[in-house]
């Protein structure tokens, strides 16, 4: 039996045309199970779970192939609802179907990766790619898992294949650029982002990534230009305005930077970045406003519970520029939080050791300093020097 054209269109990503043809097939024959299943998939994409369920119920009782497709849509519905366990169990069951279905292995691999089991995810996604080499998204997700497994060469190969198959896939450009940037290949990262912007002009995520890469390269005018373009494309978006405020601060245009940040706060749209920009300006301006800086750092901490930077910067401000036993205790609390958020980062560990020593907790300070020095060559020379100096003072 030939594959309906709407199924091929849906697989290729042409959602609008697939929708039109599936709806046409359904109007001609309301019992057309392939059309019902396709419409259920489209309803899932639209976030209309009830409509998807309605289509699936009408499609029940078909061939073995139909039932596998119904199961795949049900699994994606479970995933959309956040029911990862049942979704994974259903995808795992569907991988046993004959003939094997790439979509089942992809769904299983995606959920395994989300759960942090990258080795098992890799095996499932490799099988999906093997079954359907033309599936761009399968190559993309496999590349992400391979990066997590530090199999960089293979990861880049699959990202390249993802872009060959779907040159308009923005996430592939972003992951590619992030990986290149992490490896210090800023020229290559810039190149891949500019390629992405050719196929998706003024795409916000690509513009923001480009501004960061150019800033890392030292191309400050280029970074500012990208940030300004992003703000024009998204004039009311908190992320775009926060990003522009960051660059205005770097240009020492404090009034405009603060105006952007306050605009976001007045709208109830402040971000961790916008509040961090405010804090840095309050610390740097003449005269400094340290109380306002402390309040801004605390706000930034609340707005992003994962980011260790604001907690570390608050602790450092309290530690180095303010006085009093209560201040030192607050610095310790902030730095403990920074270390909890990012135990792999050396800066909060060293700062916490310093404040622990000031508070007379030499045992804690020594423990932290020794743990820091045990990192060996991975520890930056300037941090190693500070840690060694502190350890001598503690002995």
UniProtKB/TrEMBL annotation:
SMART domains in the cross-refs: TPR (SM00028)
Q: Which residue intervals correspond to the TPR repeats? A: 102-135, 136-169
SUPFAM superfamilies in the record, alphabetically? TPR-like (SSF48452)
Q: Which UniProt keywords apply?
A: Repeat, TPR repeat
Recorded hits in PANTHER family, A to Z, give: LIPOPOLYSACCHARIDE ASSEMBLY PROTEIN B (PTHR45586:SF1), TPR REPEAT-CONTAINING PROTEIN PA4667 (PTHR45586)
Q: What is this protein called?
A: Tetratricopeptide repeat family
